[in-house]
Amino acid sequence: MDSSEPSVCVCIPTYNEAGTIGEVISRIEGLEGLRKVIVVVDDNSGDGTSDIVRRLMGEYGNIRLIERGGKLGLGSALIEGFEEALSLKPVPGYIVSMDGDLSHDPYEIPGLVRSCDRGALTIGSRYVKGGEVQGWTLWRRAVSGGANLLARYLGGLPVRDCTSGFRCYSSDLVKDLIGSVTREGFDFQIDALMNAVRMGYQVREHPISFRDREAGESKLGLGEYLNFLILVFSRLRF
Ligand SMILES: Nc1nc2c(ncn2[C@@H]2O[C@H](COP(=O)(O)OP(=O)(O)OP(=O)(O)O)[C@@H](O)[C@H]2O)c(=O)[nH]1
Ligand SMILES: [Mg+2]
Questions:
Q1: Cα 103 to ligand 2 centroid, rounded to whole Å
Q2: For 91, which DSSP code?
Q3: Which atom, in ligand 1's list, is nearest to the CA of 100?
Q4: What one-character DSSP code corresponds to residue 160?
């Protein structure tokens, strides 16, 4: 192992991602030029997601699995993953968050990490030049586009893809976020971004190609949309 390579902890929240989590982990393990630890935070998935992760733990020595009793929310899973990342010795320089459904391609992690070298947070962005979304219906595009317009203009965020969950954080920023982020669902992404900007951390965007999930089901329900609206309107910036 080359100690001059950047060290990264990849945090993956999972809820019923048995169809894809194995491939996500294998692709991460295949990445070269990074020292890697993978933390999966699984909320008692009924489809055997954690069994797949446990089997891979026997194959690779760098995987940790946090198992929680029930579905407690994407944001709270990420916070637990981040706490685990910060407890590693030595603490990794970078912490990546990503979905376990292959919408985020692990091959894009090195690009995100390189970009984060020049800031504290790099967002894997679908809405900057070179970024794209594959496979979404017009409705899904409109919802995502609308949410990002609201977050950008009402929330005052200087970012095109505020809702992306594919991100690379410096671990210094994560230490500060753990004490300040309060949202436990999908609105965690906006809350974390708002806090990073408010604390003066530099945020960059790096283009990614996002693919609609091919297996499993979306966990993004009506309640998550409502929580998003409440958060954006509660922190209006004109
Ligand atoms: N541990 C945990 N993981 C969750 C929870 N909710 C969602 N996830 C995971 O968070 C990631 C993002 O959720 P998705 O359902 O893919 O949400 P999305 O990417 O906005 O929507 P689709 O890709 O269209 O399904 C996936 O890996 C989910 O399995 C939760 O309550 N707990
Ligand atoms: Mg997804």
A1: 6
A2: P
A3: 27
A4: S
Residue range 219-236, pLDDT digits in tens: 887 888 888 888 887 876
Question: CA 51 to CA 1: how far, in whole Å?
Answer: 28
Residue extents of the structural domains in the chain: 7-234
CA distance readout (Å), 77 to 123, 127, 144, 237 = 19, 26, 22, 28
Q: What is the Å distance from ligand 2's center to 218 Cα?
A: 6
For the record, the structure tokens of 236 come out as: 């209006």
Measure 76 CA to ligand 1 centroid, in angstroms. Answer: 12
Query: CA-CA distance, 4 to 213, in Å (whole number)?
Result: 35
Side-chain-side CA neighbours of 86 within 13 Å: the count stands at 16
Q: Average pLDDT in the 65-83 region?
A: 97
Distance in angstroms (rounded) separating the CA atoms of residues 74 and 43: 9
Protein residues placing their CB within 5 Å of the ion ligand 2: 99, 101, 103
The per-residue pLDDT for 103 is 97
**215 CA → ligand 2 middle, Å:** 10
7-234, what's its fold? Spore Coat Polysaccharide Biosynthesis Protein SpsA; Chain A (3.90.550)
pTM of the model: 0.95
Q: Which of 1-5, 82-86, 223-227, 230-234 bottoms out in mean pLDDT, i.e. has the lowest? A: 1-5
Taking CA atoms only, the protein residue closest to ligand 1 atom 12 is 99
Q: Is residue 238 over pLDDT 80?
A: no
Nearest CA owner, ligand 1 atom 26:
99
Structure confidence at residue 175 (pLDDT)? 96
Stretch 192-219: mean pLDDT, rounded? 94
Predicted confidence (pLDDT) at residue 107 exceeds the cutoff of 60: yes
